[in-house]
Amino acid sequence: MLTYPGTMSRTRPDRLPARKVVSHLGVMLLVSVVLGVVVSGLAIPFAGVLGFAARNVSDSVDELPQALKTEQLPQRTLILDKSGAEIATIYDQNRVNVSLVNISRIMAKAIVSIEDYRFYEHGALDLKGTLRALFTNQASNGVVQGGSSITQQLVKLTLQNQALLKGDKKAVEEATADTYARKLRELRYAIALEKAHSKDWILERYLNTAYFGDSAYGIQAAAQHYFGVNAKDLDLRQSAMLAGLVQSPEAFNPTENPQAARNRRDVVLDRMAQLQVISDRKAARTKKEGLGLDVQPMSNGCVSSRAPFFCDYVISYLRQDPDLGPTPKARMRLLRGGGLTITTTIDTRMQDAAQRAVAAHVYPKDGAIGAIALVQPGTGEVKALAQSRPMGTDAADGQTFLNYTVPEKYGDAAGFQPGSTFKAFVLASAIDQGIPLTTRIPSPSERAFDLGTFNTCDGPYPSSEVYTFHNSTNGPPDPNLYEGTRESINTFFVALEQRTGICEPWKLANAMGIELDKKWEVPSFTLGVADVSPLDMAGAYATFAARGLHCDSHPVTKIEDSEGNLLKEYKPHCAQVIPGDVADAVSNVLEGVTGPGGFGEALAPPQPSAGKTGTTSDNQSVWFVGYTPNMAGAATVAGVNSVGHPVTLNYQTVGGSTIYEAFGSTVAGPIWGDTFKAIAPILPDEDFQLPDSTTVAGIRVPVPYVSSCSSVDNARSVIEGGGLTAADGGFVDSSCPRGTVSYIYPSGGSSLSPGDTVTYYVSDGSPPPPPPKHHNGGGHKGGGGGHGNHGGGHGHGHH
C-alpha cells in the first residue's frame, strides 16, 4: 500500500515513551544512511551501530546496477475484423500507453498533489517527506505514512511488474519486502532515473505503469474502463477519483466499494485545495457530486469475442509464425503484451450468418458438432468460422475449447472423415490426364477390386487382397463422369481412381491445402478416410472456384505495432496447382450437384454454385462442401460425445430432430445452404467459366523455362511471353543472389491453360536450412473415425 505524508497527525519525538528510544536509534541510523546516500551517491559514510553493518550495506548497495531497465510496458493487443471493428482484446495487463500531452492537466495535477506534491522541486528523494514519514511511522508503531517520491514509486512498480511478468516469485517478494535494503536499492535506481530522464518523462511513465484496479493498468485503460473517456478528457471529479485509487486499488475500487472510493476522492480534492491547485469552493462543489461512473466492460481473450473460434485460430496461427519471435512462448509474450493491432480477414456479416445457420441446425448439448468454414477463392482469406458448441469450460452446458473448424495444429481437434467430398480430387486428376467427361464405367452396386492394381507414387499398392466396395446410392449402371459425380457412385470412383492412380489425387489434395501423409495414399482415398477440418475442405474447394489457383488459407492481413507502424503484412500465398480448364470442368461437373435433380438442389443460393456431399461409414460424419465463383464453404455435422470421441449420428437428436439415417445433403447441407443464401446479397454476381468444348483436353500452353538466378523482370517477361500470368510469391531462402528469381511454380515444361498463373519466388540471399524431420502428429483429441491401411473404413462415400 502506498501512503503519503501531509495527511495525518504526528507525535513529537521528545515526548515518546522510553520503550521507543531504541527503535528510534534505528530510525536515526536510516536517516544517516539516507543522508549519506544523498550526499555521496550511495556511498554510506559511517560505522555500524546497534548491529547494523554499514560497511556491508554499503558494499551490497554499491554492487547494484547503476540504472534500472525501463523496458516497454506490456500493452493490450486489439484484434480487428477486415473493416477495422474490434472483435477481441488480449492482454497480460490491460494497458494503452499515452504520452503526457494526452493526459489531462488536471489529472497530472491530482496525482502529483496526493502522491508527491514537491515532485518537481526535489530530486529522487524527498528528504523532508521521508523524515516526516519515518518519525510518524515510528510514533505510531506502524506504517501510516509513506515518504516515497513518485520516482521511487515508479522504481518499485517497475521492479514488481518485471518480476510478475517473468513469473519470478522470489523477485516479487524482494520487490515488495518491507526492508531497508529494498528501499536503498529503489533509491539508487531512482537516482539513476532522475539523472537519465526528465520529470515529465518520469510522471508519464508512472501514470502509464500504475495499477488502478479492475485489471486496468495505466491511466488510459483506467479512464476508458471507469468513465468511458480517454485520459486527455478526464475532468476534475474523474481525475481525483483515479488519483486516489493508486494508494490501494482494491480497497478503493469504485465498482465494489463506492463509498470508500468517494471518501478517498474527497481526500484528494481537499489536498488539491490545500495546495491551492483548485479553490476551496471548487473542491466543495465537486465533493457534492457522485462518482459519475460509466463502467465499460473489459474482455480479455476469445471467450467473449463475437467470433470466439476465429479469434482462437488467429492466435494459434500467429503463435506459429517465426517472424514474431524465436519461440512460441516469445510470440505469445508479443501477442499478449506488445500493444499490437491485428487486422484479420473475417467478415462479421458472414460470420454472423454462419453462426446463425449452425445454431439453427445443431444445438450445443447435442451429441454432435456442427461447423462451417468460409474461404475466399483467389486470396485464401478466411471469412468465417462457426461451430455449434460455444467456447467455455462448462462441458455439461455443451461448452468446449476444442476448435473443430480448423486443422488439428491450430485447434487441437483431429477433424472428421470427409467421405465422398474427396472424389473431387480424383475427378480433377482424371480430367487433367485427358479422360473425357463422357467416359462411361460399369458401376454395379458392389464390385471387387484387386488392391495391387492401384498405383501409388512408389509403384503398385503393396497388397494382393481383393476387396469389394459397395454403393450407397442408386445410379445408372454405366455412368459417365457427370452422372457418377452427381449420384456419388462409389464403385464408379474406385474404378476411376484405378485408372488415374492414387498418386496424383493424393498429391493434388496436398497441393490444395490438405496435409496428408503417406498412410492415406490408399485405394479407399477417393472415399474420404483421412481426418480433415472444415477449413481444410473449404480451402481446397476454393481452388476450383479460383480456376486452379490455390491460395493458402490465412486469417490475418497485417499487424501493426503499438505506434501504428506496420510490423508485418500477410499477403496471399498462391500457386496454380491445376490448369484453369481442368478446374472449370470440375466446377461444371459439380454444378450438377446443386443444379436440377442434384442432391443439393434445394440448398443452392440465387447465384451459380457447385458442390459435393459426403457421408462416412457408420454415419459418424456428414458433409456438404460447395462454392460460388467467389466464396467457398465447407459444412459438417459429426457425431461427437461430451469428451470429443466420435459416435454415430444415427438415432441422435440433433437440432431438435431425431436422425435415423444421416446424409450430407439433408444434415450438413442446410447449414451450408442457409449460410450461402444469407450472404448472397453481399457476394458479387459472377458465373463460372465454361470448360473447353473438347472435354478439357483443350488448348494447353507449356510453362516456359526461367533460368535460375535470373532477374525478376526477365522472369516476368518470359512467363507473360508464354501467354501466362506472372505472380510474385515473395522471398524464399536461396543461394541465388538476393533479389533474383530462385524458382518458379509450376516448373518449366508443365502444361497449363492460357492465362493461368505461374508464381516466381525471389531469393533472400540466404541458403535454405536443412529440411526438418517429418512429423506425423500426435494422438487425436477431437472427432474422427477408425482407419484401415488400405480399406480404411470401407463403405465411405455415401451421397
Automatic annotation (TrEMBL):
Chemical reaction(s) catalysed: [GlcNAc-(1->4)-Mur2Ac(oyl-L-Ala-gamma-D-Glu-L-Lys-D-Ala-D-Ala)](n)-di-trans,octa-cis-undecaprenyl diphosphate + beta-D-GlcNAc-(1->4)-Mur2Ac(oyl-L-Ala-gamma-D-Glu-L-Lys-D-Ala-D-Ala)-di-trans,octa-cis-undecaprenyl diphosphate = [GlcNAc-(1->4)-Mur2Ac(oyl-L-Ala-gamma-D-Glu-L-Lys-D-Ala-D-Ala)](n+1)-di-trans,octa-cis-undecaprenyl diphosphate + di-trans,octa-cis-undecaprenyl diphosphate + H(+); Preferential cleavage: (Ac)2-L-Lys-D-Ala-|-D-Ala. Also transpeptidation of peptidyl-alanyl moieties that are N-acyl substituents of D-alanine
InterPro entries (alphabetical): Beta-lactam/transpept-like, Glyco_trans_51, Glycosyltr_51/Transpeptidase, Lysozyme-like_dom_sf, PASTA_dom, PBP_transglycosylase, PCN-bd_Tpept
> Pfam families of this UniProt entry?
Transgly, Transpeptidase
Keyword terms, alphabetized: Carboxypeptidase, Glycosyltransferase, Hydrolase, Membrane, Multifunctional enzyme, Protease, Transferase, Transmembrane, Transmembrane helix
The residues covered by the PASTA domain are 698-764
Q: Where is this region: Disordered?
A: 756-799
Gly residues bias: start-end ranges: 779-792
Q: Where are the transmembrane segments?
A: 21-54
Entry's SUPFAM superfamilies? beta-lactamase/transpeptidase-like (SSF56601), Lysozyme-like (SSF53955)
Q: Does the keyword Protease apply?
A: yes
Output this protein's name: Transglycosylase domain-containing protein
Organism of derivation = Nocardioides panacisoli
Q: What is the lineage of its organism?
A: Bacteria, Bacillati, Actinomycetota, Actinomycetes, Propionibacteriales
